[in-house]
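pls read this stuff:
=====
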Amino acid sequence: LAAEKLSKMFADGVVVTPGELDMIAELQLEKFNARKVTFPLSSFKPAVKPKEEEVLGFYKANPKLFMTAPMLKAEIVRFAFTVPQITPSEATVQAYYKAHENEFVKDGKVQTLAQVRGKIVDVIRVETGKRLALEAAKKFRDGIYDAVAADSIETAKGQMEVFAKLAAKNKLQIIKTDWFTPETKEIKGIGAEPALVEALFKTNPTHTPLLRTSLVGERGVYVAASTALQPSRVADFADVKDKAEELLLAEKSKQAVS
């Protein structure tokens, strides 16, 4: 910066002595070698284990660090994706081929319909299975809404009774879950359906238990409702004692550094 300033002054007509010119040259040619020494916080970890009273005090002073995750239970009807063994019409196959020609390019050329017919049939079957599942789920969900609206049912209990009644009428299995949290990777009996977990945590089993629409997931389409909720709360000290001690030691390490 100093060299830059002196150069600008020189350009503006300021008289510069030979010594100042030498200083400019030195600044422009000067190099620095920097070194960084890192001291991990673990290096400052107290050697003495804190007493339980101190850990308990830290736990009480920082309740937000020890909150449990909220938990839900739900009842779910799944319309699984299946692959119906249908035979698409020739017109359907040709229409798909023309609409997706860019997907059938090999070695710079579009493959003929004869070369990709089998692949197209498989894709149409998969898409048909998904469409049928979506239509069945929507019909079931609309039936619930219509029955709830017709009888002016406002309570969560009444809505769940309609849900169970229509499921039985349509011979649909209701999967009743165990407790799960927003971080649950797989729901027992359902599998990994993160969008379903997220959607259910936006419901309220006391007032609005049902999902507002049928939900398209990874394995099928779902009509579901939450049935019980355990709100987030401060965990019992016995359950988080080790975590509290670990966080306390980390806090002491930071204080030792500062």
